[in-house]
Amino acid sequence: MAAIEKSLKDYLDYLEIEKNRSPKTRENYERYLKAFIDFSRIKKPEDITMETVKEFRIWLARSPVRGREGSKRASASNGIKKVTQTYYAIAIRNFLKYLIKNDFEVLSPDKIELPKIPRRQIDIIEYADLERFLSAPAQNTLRGLRDRAILEMFFSTGLRISELCNLDRYINLDRGEITVRGKGEKLRVVFLSDRARAAIKNYLDKRSDTTEHLFISLSKQTSPLKEPKVIGKITSRAVQRLVEFYRRKAGIAKKITPHQIRHQFATDLLINGADLRSVQELLGHSNISTTQIYTHITNKELREIHKSFHAARRRK
User: Which of 255, 284, 303 is at the close of a domain?
Assistant: First the structure.
């Protein structure tokens, strides 16, 4: 095993064991760093130079994106998106920090600047559209009750899709709060609205299975007279499909995804007066700068207030 490969394995073990990062995070860092090592053909940590990093980043910016099967596909900029390029740069920087911490004489991570990316714009739907969307599932079938509970849960809690799929069935609805395990295995408490609690209760009352997960995957119905079979825990892909199905059913032109409902949750709180720190806690963001992407939306609300109330007497 080459020195760089051993150092990489040690670093990935450190991420998982010492830093308590999830297996998915380990997998992503391994992919980013292996791509850099393979491209640069370095044999030991000391071979990492500004020149090797620069050449790799130029390659990322210009190379066609490869799919899972290895086939090339073009991206909007003929290379990997800026935000994805940032992930590679962050992985290299953090790897270098780990190496320095372990007494390797390597390139200073501070010399690697992150690419400047445009501020993310979040597009939210109108409140009337949101209500129509949340009410779209039918209420006379197990599938419809499940789907209503999922949509209400998303809007009430701002959960990530993976967090929602992993929820345990046996929750205390009377308390109206759930402890969830988020990114980095961090625990946080989220709260259920009255409508979310009612939707979940109606859904659970309809279930006759003993599956431990709150949200289950159901087989396709071959007859309207037969209840679908429970297959197991619902998958992220199934949740994405049902969100898209109800967007269409509600006749909403704007795109809606599970993560976009998380945006709706955050902006709804801010527009109604919640402070940024509280929203950060409810979303499970480790850094408040991540939560600040929502402020431009609330600024629009302030603009409307200014327009309506400022210098009103001068317009008479």
Answer: 255
> In 3D, which of 20, 1, 42, 29 has the Cα closest to residue 93?
29
Which amino acid would we find at residue 51? Answer: E
Q: Any idea which residues carry the catalytic annotation?
A: 160, 183, 259, 262, 285, 294
Is 57 within 8 Å of 16 (Cβ atoms)? no
CA-nearest of 62, 53, 66, 68 to 82 is 62
Question: Could you tell me the residue range of the domain that residue 57 belongs to?
Answer: 3-111
Q: What is the number of other CB atoms lying within 10 angstroms of the CB of residue 300?
A: 12
Q: How many residues does the chain have?
A: 316
**DSSP character string of 114-183:** PPP-PPPP-----HHHHHHHHT-S-SSSHHHHHHHHHHHHHHHH---HHHHHT-BS---TTTTEEEEE-G
* 60 and 175 share one domain: no
Beta bridge partners of 216: 233
Residue 213 DSSP symbol = B
The predicted-structure confidence for 28-39, as pLDDT tens digits, reads as follows: 999 999 999 999
Same domain, 178 and 245: yes
In a 13 Å sphere around the CA of 248, the CA atoms on its Cβ side amount to 5
The residue assigned the tokens 């297996």 is: 23
**pLDDT beneath 50: ranges in the chain:** 66-77, 314
* pLDDT, tens digit (0-9, with 9 covering 90-100), for 243-302: 999 999 999 998 899 998 988 888 888 878 788 888 888 888 877 777 777 766 656 555
